Amino acid sequence: MATVNSIIYSDKYFEERGSIYTIYDDKDPELQSVRFVQDKISKSFRGVVRGFHGDSSTWKLITCLHGVVLLITYDVLTDKKNRYVLDGNSKQSVSVLVPPNTLNAHQCLTEDCIFHYKWSEYYTSPEDQWSVNYNDKEINPQWKNPVTIVSDRDTQSGTLQELREKIK
Asked: Taking phi first (over 0 means left), then psi (-120 to 50 degrees means alpha), and beta for anything else, what does residue 57 get?
């Protein structure tokens, strides 16, 4: 089983009607040991930031279906940060498999974007997730566009250091 973010590529097939591609295939070796139970989709507008959220048990398979997003992941156990630009309009589908103990946040870089993620655990409430301020100084997200809208949850969340102290 992957213990760090894995990037999963799949070809898109284009024709006169549009395109078709696969996001999830249980025959993919990277995904065989993960059982997904929910799919979630969010639509955002340019500059919107969602996150940093995560927990100790949930795997997420993240894909941008439309538009372009900046995805930032932060492993709270190893302090490894990754940045990905996911383009829903590219000729190849790119998904990121995010393991447990990893925070993730994304920003919409285009007029609008559709963000899809599969979850290995059922989402119940924000209280069951970790949340770190969207602009945490230690994570230093360096958002690509000016931030236009952020939820109260994401602006009022604590710091990465406070999270570390809480989960020790």
From this structure: alpha
d(CA 72, CA 104): 6
Residue 40's CB is within 10 A of a number of other CB atoms, namely: 12
Q: How many CA atoms lie within 13 A of 92 on its CB side?
A: 8
Can you give the pLDDT at residue 3? 52
Series of mean pLDDT values for 10-residue runs along the chain (168 residues): 71 86 86 93 98 97 97 96 95 93 98 97 92 98 97 97 93
DSSP code per residue over 4-26: S-EEEEEEEEEETTEEEE-S--T
CA distance 157 to 103: 13
CATH number at residue 67: 2.60.120.10
Q: Which two tokens stand for residue 152?
A: 């109260």
The pairing of strands 6-15 and 92-98 is antiparallel
Would you say residue 82 lies in a domain?
Answer: yes
Phi and psi of 46, rounded to 5°? Answer: -45, 130
pLDDT confidence of residue 2 = 47
Domain encompassing residue 105: 6-167
CA neighbor of 63 nearest in space, from 104, 121, 34: 104
